[in-house]
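_Backbone structure tokens_
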Amino acid sequence: MHVFSWNINGITPFLQNSITSYFERPCQNPPKGGIPPSSLRDFLRRHDWPSVLFLQEVKIAFADIKTQDAVRSAVNASGPSDSPPKAGKGPKYDVYFTLPNDRHNARGPGGSGKVYGVASIVRSDLLSRFEFESVRSRTVDWDSEGRIQIIELASAPVKLALFNIYAVNGTENAYRSPVNGAVSGTRHDRKLAFHRLLRNECVQLGSNGWDIVLAGDFNVAPDERDGWPKLRVFPKQHVLNRADFLQKFLDRGGSDNDGAPQDDCKGWKGVDVWREVHGEQRGYTYYPRNMTWGSSCDRVDYAIVGRKTWEKSIIKGCGILESEVERGPSDHCPIWVDIEVPLK
């Protein structure tokens, strides 16, 4: 099962023209340095119709049904890209949204709420291809910023939970109560809370027999191999946020000596798939658009799986589509992970 994840930094480039215009000239062999058309359907085709494509930072307002419908149309529109030689017509996809409804912390221009938000694009024929009996999309009750979506694929005895993650970016800006808007700390504080609550979610699901894969933009580069020209170490709170993340998800650090915040719950003991597969190799996913390609970059998008899931050897590969072409209109490159699940 091929799973892709991509922080697209806004859905607008994919929808600003008429949907059909994206399929008039499918990008099969883009010129060196060229940018493929901003077409989600063409992305799916170019990468052999993956089972799942996670999108982060879609920037769609919770009440904007028109744009949500446009995304569904875009990923299923017919066109030449559906009919490469001897390949036949491409599959249909379902789209699930988790969008911000927090008017105090997720306010776009003019209070539109068009910030953050994730979407999961899932092949409609998943149940007919794999030994799953149900596909369920859900979110969590502790996030209202549109940062987490969980795709649960279940059958006896396989239970697989795929998390689409757009983690909080820690800053000194105020974090407000979603209920009454009162300031209750900074975005740094909310990031630490996000780590704790997500870790608890993983621990609970794991204890109920679920295999768990987290994929998306974690807004943390794990160590010095994941930042170029160097790992970000300023301000100090950013270092503490990283230590907290490593403790809670990768079982690294967490002692009083390294300054990582402590709590009563142990870490989840996850595995950074990229680092486990590629060793010391460097690879980056965040390339700011206002800087020369490769002059400053970080690996903040990746997949993490539970230790028990990793030991089952069902993770068969992972990678980064690390090029200006694949970055497209975003400032992040897509990532992928392959998961072995029973076929029908």
